[in-house]
Design brief:
Blueprint: E1 5-8, E2 14-18, E3 24-31, E4 34-40, E5 43-46, E6 50-52, E7 56-61, E8 64-67, E9 76-77, H1 90-104, E10 111-112, H2 119-126, E11 129-130, H3 135-139, H4 142-147, E12 159-160, E13 164-168, E14 171-175, E15 179-184, E16 187-189, E17 196-200, E18 202-203, E19 212-213, E20 229-235, E21 238-246, E22 252-254, H5 273-286, H6 292-301, E23 304-307, E24 314-317, E25 320-324, H7 326-331, H8 336-360
Parallel strand pairs: 9-10, 23-25
Antiparallel strand pairs: 1-2, 2-3, 3-4, 4-5, 6-7, 7-8, 11-12, 13-14, 14-15, 15-16, 17-20, 18-19, 20-21, 21-22, 24-25
Length: 361
């Protein structure tokens, strides 16, 4: 649909996925119907089957492992032994290749049979599969599954619907019926993303009149398939930086531009313990219910400081968590309640990832 080429060997097996610019996004080597090697951005899957102490039959992926698959006809979504050890973007690239292989083989649906049904995995799967269930159903029992290293399948079907990737300077674009996602310098932009999001540049008018510029904060405009889109960083209800502009086919129209440095006076300051405890309670309300107690405890225990995080709202650091100081500059004037909620929303994904990583170790 968007110019991607799926190269095959004489036996009809997929060997390369190449976008319309000539960039190779996946390369596969086979011995009959057995995978020898899969190479995607930042990761290589060794097709040889080993015995892993937690997963059983598995393939090595860099410094971690994933459950073994029948790659010519994959019917299962693999589990990763230590998801946090995968380089950024590698997991999504591997899952999208699995979706391509399953679709080519006529597999109707796949199920996840692993110990880490997290929100992060759900969001990654949504980029390459369609699913009638919701995130809450998928993540229910996540902590219990992690603790017992569950390998029984979750009764939720994921229908293969892989995206196409298009390389651009500093990253890539993901497309299905439209541009769904952009990754630039490691920052992900999505229509409902925070703080990095895709914002429609214009609304097509059904009467045929000139397009109307999307209003600031108009999130619904990001769903319009025929509009050019801006990759922007937003904190609260205000834009912080425009990084790039994309055509409907994913082509780069402007940028990418560097995210400006934050010069907030609060950079480097550490949250007082009382504020950290209050934020921990709010964070517990934002994470999947099975992880709430662990998230609350971890957030209350570790230091939190203000920092310049570029296009990220929050992250885990060696000695605690950091939050982008722009949240203070742009949301604190709206009142402490608004700021507290914004901090919890920002910290939720980082704290959730930290909890899952500690369970996985």
């Amino acid at each position: 649909m968007h110019g991607t080429i799926w190269e095959e060997d004489p036996g009809g097996r997929l060997v390369r996925v190449v976008d319309r610019t000539g960039h190779v996004h996946a390369e596969l080597a086979w011995a009959g119907n057995d995978l020898v090697r899969l190479a995607v951005a930042h990761a290589v899957v060794d097709g040889a089957v080993i015995m892993h102490p937690l997963l059983g039959a598995a393939h090595t992926v860099g410094s971690t492992a994933m459950t073994a698959l029948a790659w010519a006809r994959p019917t299962e979504i693999p589990a990763m032994a230590e998801p946090g050890r995968l380089p950024p973007g590698a997991g999504g690239a591997i899952l999208n290749t699995i979706a391509i292989l399953a679709q080519r083989a006529g597999i109707v649906a796949l199920r996840y049979a692993g110990p880490y049904p997290t929100s992060a995995l759900w969001r990654t799967l949504a980029r390459s599969f369609r699913c009638a269930a919701d995130e809450a159903s998928f993540t229910a029992g996540a902590l219990a599954r992690a603790l017992r290293v569950a390998r029984d399948p979750i009764a939720i079907d994921f229908v293969p619907a892989p995206h196409e990737r298009l390389a651009i300077p500093g990253g890539f674009i993901e497309l299905r019926d439209r541009v769904e996602r952009a990754v630039i310098d490691g920052i992900t932009y999505e229509p409902r993303g925070s703080p990095a999001r895709l914002i429609a540049a214009a609304r097509p008018d059904p009467t045929g009149a000139e397009p109307v510029l999307a209003a600031p904060g108009d999130r619904s405009a990001g769903d319009l398939p025929q509009a050019s889109q801006h990759c922007e960083i937003w904190f609260g209800d205000a834009p912080y930086a425009r990084v790039a502009t994309l055509a409907p086919d994913g082509s780069l129209l402007a940028g990418p531009h560097s995210i400006p440095a934050c010069k907030s006076p609060v950079i480097g300051r550490v949250f007082p313990p009382a504020l950290r405890a209050a934020i921990a309670e709010l964070v517990a309300d934002t994470v999947p219910a099975p992880l709430a107690d662990a998230a609350r405890a971890l957030c209350a225990e570790l230091p939190i400081r203000w920092a310049d995080l570029g296009g990220r709202a929050a992250c885990e650091e060696a000695d605690g968590f950091a939050v982008h100081a722009a949240l203070w500059d742009q949301i604190a004037p709206l009142g402490p309640g608004r700021l507290a909620l914004a901090l919890a929303e920002a910290l939720g994904p980082a704290v959730t990832a930290a909890v899952v990583q500690r369970v996985a170790v």
